[in-house]
Amino acid sequence: MLWKQIRSKKNSVVLVTVFALALLSLAASILDRSIAVQASLPTPGKQGFIGEYSMDGETWYPLMNDQKITACGSDLYLRGHFSREIQKDASLGFFSDHLAVTISVNGERWYVNSQAGFHSMGYSMFPALCGRTWEMARSPGIGVEDEIEIHLRNMHGFGSQQVFSRFLSTLHVGIGSNMDLLRSALEPYTRLSRIVGALLIVAGFLQLGASTAFSRQSSAELLCAGLMCLCAGVFFLYDAFDLPFWSDSAVLNTCLRQCSIILCVQSMEIYICGGLAGKQRKAAQAATYLSGGMNALIFLSVALGRMVIYDGMLWWGICQAVVCSVLIICCVWELIRGERRNRLIAASGALMLAAGLLDIFGVCDLT
């Protein structure tokens, strides 16, 4: 009798945890659409750019204030001038999301970040070294009348539509401590993400530990739920907009971010399959096998040096668009026709899958 009560409580805890994770995933996906607004928070040294832009270096368009420029293409060219003076030895700071950045002043090259330098030397695999970083360039003394040319290159040819807009909205001027001011301004917007990430990691370890105390089937459920929570927690931490302030390894940050979302989604799909029955379960299992095969292919290609993890996300996203759609249909069918005890799992699965599709569709950013 006592053991049945423990198992019943275990099932309730797992279901509540999964449902809470579903709600958090959906909320995070919706809030992430407004991250460009967070990126343009006012700072004491906010810098503006006045001029025009081109996607091919030939056809030019006027650059409007707060204009959203898509990054589905690989290049953006800007020419014009800064809205305020940058005194000598002051710094121009900006956010680079997998971008190669080259800035010229009056026709002379002033700043070239590492990715732009590697690309100019013809090293095709060096996108593995890029990531989401805050960069600063020391000024030689730039006035508002100086002609500025900026070349931004998306190193992967795909990614978040907002990366160019984030670069422009985060331009700011300062001397060292200004980065600390920007970090302080962003911290309230990322604090919740870090707290949720930490709580999910703790919940994940607790469920992984508890998986050793139950039967094989119950242990498998707890193992999947624990791994899902653990990976979701890591993703919440490493997807934070201010991550470069407390972890300066762009390579590690990118790898952990991409691997955690891949494993989280795979664990979620396996867990959802366990909550379905009949034809819904068979269809979901077939889709999950497809997802697992794609994940194995991506990890193998990365291990053999055939691609970098970030580039593999394009194919992962295409695969997940199909898999998540199939699983959502299965979950909805389970809600309508399935057993009552499986409905909470189906509802949770549908929410989390919807959160994933929000990231895959509508924007180029696949995570």
Architecture overview:
The structure is a single chain. The chain has 367 residues and is α+β, with helices and mostly antiparallel strands. The chain has eleven helices and nine strands. A six-stranded antiparallel sheet has the order 2-1-3-8-5-6. It has a three-stranded antiparallel sheet with strand order 7-4-9. A hairpin with a 6-residue loop joins strand 1 and strand 2. Helix 1 packs parallel to helix 11, helix 6 packs antiparallel against helix 8 and helix 8 runs parallel beside helix 10. The N terminus and C terminus are likely disordered.
At a glance:
It is built from eleven helices and nine strands. With 367 residues, it is of the alpha+beta class. β5 and β6 form a beta hairpin.
Question: What is the topological layout?
Answer:
Layout: H1 2-32, H2 35-39, E1 49-54, E2 61-62, E3 75-82, E4 91-97, E5 99-105, E6 108-112, H3 114-120, E7 132-138, E8 148-154, H4 163-169, E9 172-174, H5 177-210, H6 216-238, H7 243-246, H8 250-274, H9 278-303, H10 309-337, H11 343-360
Antiparallel strand pairs: 1-2, 1-3, 3-8, 4-7, 4-9, 5-6, 5-8
Helix pairs in contact: 1-6, 1-11, 5-6, 6-8, 8-9, 8-10, 8-11, 9-10, 10-11
Tags for this entry?
14% strand, disordered C terminus, 367 residues, three-stranded antiparallel β-sheet, alpha+beta, elongated, single chain, six-stranded antiparallel β-sheet, 11 helices
Determine the strand fraction and express it as a percent band. Answer: 5-15%
| Residue runs with pLDDT of under 50 for 5 or more positions | 1-10, 33-42, 362-367
How is the main sheet built? 6 strands, antiparallel
Mean of pLDDT: 76
H/E topology pattern: HHEEEEEEHEEHEHHHHHHH
Inertia-based shape: elongated
